[in-house]
Amino acid sequence: MDYGPRRIIAMVREGFRTEALASETIWLCASCYSCAVHCPQQIHITDVMYNLKREAIGSGLFPKRFPIPVLAQEFYNVVRRRGRAAEFLVVLRMALRTNPLVLFTMWRTGFDLLRTGRLPLRGERVRRMPQLPREAS
Amino acid sequence: MDNGIRIGVYTCHCGTNIAGIVDVRNVAEYAAGLPGVAVSREYKYMCSDPGQELIQQDIREYALNRVVVASCSPHLHEQTFRTAVAGGGLNPFWFHMVNIREHASWVHLDKAAATAKARDLVRAAVRRVALHRSLEKGRVKIHPDVLIVGGGIAGIHAALTLANAGKHVYLVEREPSIGGHMAKFDKTFPTLDCAACILTPKMSAVRAHRNITLWSYSEVTTVEGYVGNYQVTVRRRPRYIDESLCSGCLECVEACVFKQAKVTDEFNMGLSKRKPIYIPFPQAVPQVPVVDPETCIQFKSGKCKKTCMDACGERHAIDLEMKEATERIEVGSIILSTGFQAFDARRTPEYGYGTYPNVYTALEVERLVNASGPTGGEVVLRDGRHPRTVGIIHCVGSRDEKTNRWCSRVCCMYSLKLAHLIKEHTEAEIFNFYIDMRTPGKGFEEFYQKLREEGVHFIRGRVAEVTDWALDPSEEGSLVIRVEDTLAAFVRRIPVDMVVLATGLEPRSDAQEVRRRFNVSCSTEGFFLERHPKLAPVSTFTEGIFLAGACQAPKDIPDTVAQAGAAAAEALALIDAGFIETEPNTAYVNEESCSGCGTCAPLCPYGAITYSEEVRKAAINQAKCKGCGTCVAACPSGSIAQNLFEDDEIFAEIEGILSYA
Amino acid sequence: MSAFTYFPGCSLRGTGVAYDESLRTLLKVLGIALEELDDWNCCGATSYMAIDEGSAFVLSGRNLSLAREKGNHELLAPCAACYLVLRKTQDYVGRYPAIAEQVGQALSASGLPPLDGVRVRHPLEVLYNDVGTERIRKSVKRKWAGGKVACYYGCQLVRPFAEVDRAHDPTRMDELLRAAGIPTVDYALKTKCCGGSLTGTIHDVGVRLNYIILKEAVRKGAAALATVCPLCQHNLDVYQREIRRSTGEKLDVPVFYFTQLLGWALGSDPDALGLKRQVSGRRLVREWFAEREVAVHG
After folding, report:
1. How far apart are CA B99 and CA B81, in angstroms?
2. Predicted local confidence at residue B619, as pLDDT
3. For a surface tag, which of B78, B95, B301, B563 has the fewest beta carbons within 10 Å of its beta carbon?
4. Which chains touch A (3 or more CB pairs under 8 A)?
5. Neighboring chains of C (3 or more beta-carbon pairs < 8 A)
6. Angle, to 10 degrees, between the axis of helix A87-98 and the axis of helix A102-115?
7. pLDDT confidence of B483, banded at 50, 70, 90?
């Protein structure tokens, strides 16, 4: 985390847009909503982080080799194409785009999942794909 | 106009408050051409002495017999101008005021439209004022006795001030003893003088004062009447001990069949036990025990040996057959000093109060550090340990949209005080966690500086949580405070032995009920509403009812005492005037057309209307009527009219507004 | 008995397959019918929403709309992320006209009905409210012989709407398990974040969060954890080997779905509950379940 959420909000409020959008912090938000229920000012901080993530992607300011935005993009692409997410595909493509060496460290986890029948290599598809949003908006 | 009406119209600039938006000259020139207007002027400040003299001079020179002033709200200056008009020799009610500031210049940006609106309002007033009748103010006698509700430091101070001035005071307190929250405190900030040492002499003075009737363990149940003449009933709960016979020896408490105290002690915030017959604290006033029927064996089974009565012996002060009593009194004014309640820390579950035994509220710690408290002033935790590290969390139930939005004003300072006292008692390392330090008071900032010099830690950051989750063995058995240190800009975990929650002040849970009983208002957060936040801070919208202390807003002891003195002075001013003038804008019944239907009487919020079965007519008590107009609107036969709001006056005003020129 | 339209979500087709198996098995025992929503799509959760919020609401909107079209408006979503996004979509569509318009237009362009009128449910809350602890207590067929269980509620099920249970200190899973004769432990981290997808991206950060939760649960006496979300179960279950290696601590704790534990107590076959799919604590799993199948409750 390069700034901390409190500093991110202060930066946004004071117009330090580039710094906020290029930060890694906003991507580290795993949307657990803990801040949203604790905030004494009742600010929907999770939504603020989502907004910043989208703006960072839209403006191209997001950190390019940071795995989280890459994972989000791959997840998004898979869902755009198939209508459902396929964990195996998403993780594989993210690793290829950021740091392929990760795949070597992940093989045991993958093996565990395969062995217990928890890693289908073929993803599922929605039949009526035209009903879903497709082109990037 | 050929009916002899000669009106003077005065349009005020109010500096740039009005003239900045409304074209004042245009309004004045327009008014000069209206029927019946003999003179129309504009002036920078009509409320100034020269402005008022201008009116009086014109009354003489132009033989005016009606006056209209177009300026600010009648709330501020209606009285000023009525007096000026009377000084010019006219009936003060031959006057009408138009508000072109709050109703025009302050609420509009379009200058032309605001000016047109001002012209419309002035035209309506000119039409109306021509029809005004002469009216006389009424007079109501003021009963010299005063009722004070709530016997904390506010009520005590107000009672003594009035009693010393020779007035008779009824002081009603719900608890068995007066003293309020202050009686629970050990020291007071920032001087660290002993709370009991400064409070108990005043409590004793209340008991001894011949001008004070003290009813403890009692509550006001009904209030009727109006300023100067309130009829009040007070319910006196049975304490099962006759105050007039009890000598305060407390031998009955000693003799109770309960050898060990087993009942939760409310005064000590549940940190100790008391017996079913008890006195809340050693300096209690009155110095008379109470029997708690919920836990007394005699009340529960009827089979107690009643050793208390044996101990009382020949005095026969104990009367377990005692019944609730009702007192009825007449007073002229009332001071509400019902105080506050501390925020319930269970409403912020992230701080673990009620889950972790070593999380305390500030009031509990006040008792812990108090020499007459449950531990004799020794700071011992619920698990028997002495704390070596203590965290004090500020703003619990304050400045928080989820609970209470307001700053409770006293918590920063009492947290500093508790930090000092705990350190003095235990030599513990102390951490204060604050959002902002607020020390605006005489000697307050200096006290904060002193605490920093004493080595107390101050960490700026709102605590996220208090938890028993241990990251490594060094944290085991501790409470961990997780907080972002916003000055150091990282998240910290601080293990402590004891957590103190600086709970905020909030309105008492029955404030709404009390508000209705005394016919006063509450602000949005639920504290009693003063008539004006700056200029009438102890008055209410009900004449003769005043406010003192934390029932009006959170405040510390000096401010509470100052306000109590002010409330007493307001009551004194009323009493010493002997009477109060009442506005003549009251409703009256036209007896000839009154059909005796009785619709009006129950509608009156002030109980001013009586209905006589004998003559089958309604009558309105002019002293009680506030001129709200409810009955006027409700009367099916149109038999109720209201002075200053007669039908012809109102219709003329409406026509004036609607006839665009 | 009651019936639900079932929205399994993508994870229950992959790493969370045991959740799917155990939920179906348990509800069958309780006489609750499930009919899977035909042609359901991704709910638009977390990662998707970070790229395109409007489309995320459209995705959830389509699922809600399909459920409405189907006639059974009680939509059961076991994955906490799916549950939250479906609820959030309903909430925001009601709150923000711009979102309502975008979702409404997309649905009508696809010939789908509006999404309102659907009630999104979660198994935890259905079992607590509709079935109730009393019925669970009376339906128990097996006596628990395992260790104490720490109930882990995670984040998105209890926040931000707090409809399934209290946001700060949820207890309903504990109450259900205890009704089934399974002892639970109290600990402060039951709603702390498991790291979500961070285990797949910033791996060290994610795994550390798992470690903290597991360690504290064990410190408070837990021999196993119970979860209500496929991502929580995955994170807490599959990285324990790594945690052992990096911290040197002997951590090998089975992490179950609460439906597996309830299903076992109510007499279902361990295989039908997906109990062979555990990665960590396999020795305890064998010990607690397989060998004690004969110990029928009297």
Report:
1. 13
2. 94
3. B301
4. B, C
5. A, B
6. 170
7. very high
pLDDT at A136 over 60: no
pLDDT digits (tens, 9 = 90+) for B165-207: 999 999 999 999 999 999 999 999 999 999 999 999 999 999 9
Among B581-585, B605-609, C191-195, the range with the most confident prediction by mean pLDDT is C191-195
Nearest Cβ partner for B349 among C168, C187, C219: C168
Q: Which of B349, B350, B469 sits opposite C216 (nearest CB)?
A: B469
Mention every residue, 6+ apart, whose C-beta is less than 8 A from residue B443: B190, B191
Q: Given an 8 Å threshold on Cβ–Cβ distance, is B349 in contact with C219? A: no
C13 has a chain B CB within 8 A of its CB: no
Whether C51 contacts chain A with CB within 8 A: yes
pLDDT at B582: 86
Give the pLDDT of residue C295: 46
Mark the ranges of chain C whose per-residue pLDDT is less than 50: 293-298
pLDDT at residue B523 is higher than 70:
yes
Min distance B621 CA to chain A CA atoms (Å): 51
- CB spacing of C216 vs B349 below 8 angstroms: no
Interchain contact, B490 vs A6, CB within 8 Å:
no
DSSP result, C118-176 = -EEE-HHHHIIIII-HHHHHHH--B---S--EEEE--STTTSSS--SS-SSS--HHHHH
Query: Rounded distance, CA B25 to CA B31, Å?
Result: 10
B306-363 confidence digits (pLDDT tens): 999 999 999 999 999 999 999 999 999 999 999 999 999 999 999 999 999 999 999 9
Q: Do B484 and A7 touch (CB under 8 A)?
A: no
What is the spatial distance between Cα C235 and Cα C198, in angstroms, rounded to a whole number?
A: 9
Backbone angles phi, psi at C149, to 5 degrees: -115, 135
Buried-state track C149-182, b at ≥16 Cβ within 10 A, e below 16: bbbbbbbbbbbbbeebbebbbbbbbbbbbbbbeb
Stated length of chain B: 661
pLDDT of residue A135: 57
Nearest residue in A to C205, CA atom: A28
Residues in chain C closer than 8 A to A73 (CB atoms): 51
Q: Is B619 helix (H, G, I), strand (E, B) or coil?
A: strand
To the nearest whole percent, how much of chain A has pLDDT over 90? 71
* pLDDT attached to residue B225: 87
Q: Which of A6, A7, A38 sits opposite B350 (nearest CB)?
A: A38
The dihedral over CA atoms of B450, B455, B461, B467, expressed in degrees to the nearest 10, equals -130
Give the C-alpha separation, B130 to A42, whole Å: 56
C52/A54 touch (CB, cutoff 8 Å), yes or no? yes
Query: Which chains does chain B touch, 3 or more C-beta pairs < 8 A?
Result: A, C
pLDDT at B32 over 90: yes
- C-chain CB neighbours of B467 within 8 Å are 188
What SS3 state is found at B80? helix
Q: Which of residues 149-168 of C touch B (CB under 8 A)?
A: 168
CA distance C11 to A130: 23
B590 neighbors B640 (Cβ within 8 angstroms): yes
Predicted model pTM: 0.89
Interface check for C202 against chain A (CB to CB < 8 A): the answer is: yes
How large a percentage of chain B has pLDDT more than 70?
99
Residues B572 and B552 sit within 8 Å (Cβ to Cβ):
no
Q: Average the pLDDT over A49-70 and give the result.
A: 94
Chain C from 216 to 245: CB within 8 A of any A CB: 238-239, 241-242
Q: How many CB atoms lie within 10 A of CB B179?
A: 28
Pairs across A and C, CB distance < 8 A: 154
Which residue from A minimizes the CA distance to B462? A40
Cα separation of C187 and C225, whole Å?
Answer: 11
